[in-house]
Amino acid sequence: MAIAKKMRGFTEKSSWIRRMFEEGAVMKQKHGAENVYDFSLGNPDVPPPAAFSEALSRVCRDQQPGVHGYMANGGYPFAREAVATRISREQGMTLSGNELLMTCGAAGAINITLKALLDPGDEVILLAPYFVEYDFYIDNHGGVSRVVETDSEFGLDFVAIEQAINAKTKAIIINSPNNPTGRVYSTDELQRLGALLRAAAEKRGAAIYLISDEPYRGIIFDGRICPGVFPVYRDSIIVGSHSKDLSLPGERIGFAAVHPEIEDKASLLAAMTLANRILGFVNAPALMQRVVAELQDAAAPRAVYARRRDVFCQVLQEAGFQFQRPQGAFYIFPPTPIEDDAKFCRILQEERILAVPGRGFGRPGHIRLAFCVSEQVIVGAAAGFKKAIENARN
Ligand SMILES: Cc1ncc(COP(=O)(O)O)c(C=O)c1O
């Protein structure tokens, strides 16, 4: 076979969600889609807000010359300014459009950031369980992942993070609200993390960058707030998108914003801008930049996801699962009743329930359940969850 050996290995490693997707398609054909309870994908089913199609129609009617042309690689100035205004509000700190780039989703934003930061062999700390694509993104740019476990409630383990930092540490990626756990880090946790990174960077005499991956920022429950990283740590970069909050994952629209006082700001922004181009993104989609510039005040459908979270928690509790109640995003990550999470997923499949094994997120012994599905699907799966627990224990 002609493909690279490394890619062969990656394909195998990334195969859990894909495998679930493929097996789900077969099951749906066999039993009918309505009889399969598919919790495997983080693909929002809630439609984008009405303001989205209104803005899209308006933008499509704009026939000015050049509207579909190339632009500066960082994006349209007015779009950058609109996103920067929202981020300034969220972070309680003034940010200008020049400190932000429009990107192809959060994935594009993470890639340009890592491309700009990493030299070969540089390490990036990841907090398990985590979005497994981070490993691939880090490898894309010659970096090495260093995985640190979170605590029993998926909170930050400061001792473990401190122990993982060494002369090669260049960055740490955090993700709150979290995929796959639904955990939201508190102000206190972020302040402690900021102090730890500051002390470690000072001791070493080189910056350690905090990359805060926030595509789920708008999806948060119980009146919580998602505290900002900019006020607690200078060398930080926020990456995000409208894939989840506005249900636009296929449109590939996101951003990367740097702290206004970040070390070596001008060269970092220049490197990220060039990375946007040479990684082949060139620039974020023009139409979508125009559209989301108008939607920065649109709210995510929090109430819909919060209600599903409540219903799902009840279903799982009644089935006998014990788990951390999600504080945001749209995932639950319960421990499995048997150690082998892949085997438990097969047992769930016998009940026509699709889940992803925790090992696909660097934490075996768990499953990830996405609630981007109707309440009907969640309630419909209740008997199957109960039966699967009984079957797993027998
Ligand atoms: C934690 C996390 N980060 C980044 C991404 C990528 O998001 P986007 O579709 O905006 O590239 C995802 C997508 O599922 C995610 O869950």
Give Rg in angstroms.
21 Å
User: Kindly state the mean pLDDT as a whole number?
Assistant: 96
The count of β-strands is 12
Task: Write out the CATH superfamily name of the largest domain.
Answer: Type I PLP-dependent aspartate aminotransferase-like (Major domain)
Helix/strand/pairing category: alpha/beta
| Stretches with pLDDT under 50, minimum 5 residues | none
Q: Which CATH top level class of the largest domain fits?
A: Alpha Beta
- Strand fraction band? 5-15%
The CATH architecture of the largest domain can be given as 3-Layer(aba) Sandwich
Which distinct ligands sit in these coordinates?
A: pyridoxal-5'-phosphate
Q: Kindly report the CATH topology of the largest domain.
A: Aspartate Aminotransferase, domain 2
From the structure provided, what is the oligomeric state, counting identical versus distinct chains? Answer: single chain
What pattern of helices and strands is seen along the backbone? HHEHHEHEHEHEHEEEHHHEHEEEHH
From the spread of the alpha carbons, the general shape counts as globular
- When the domains are counted, the total is 2
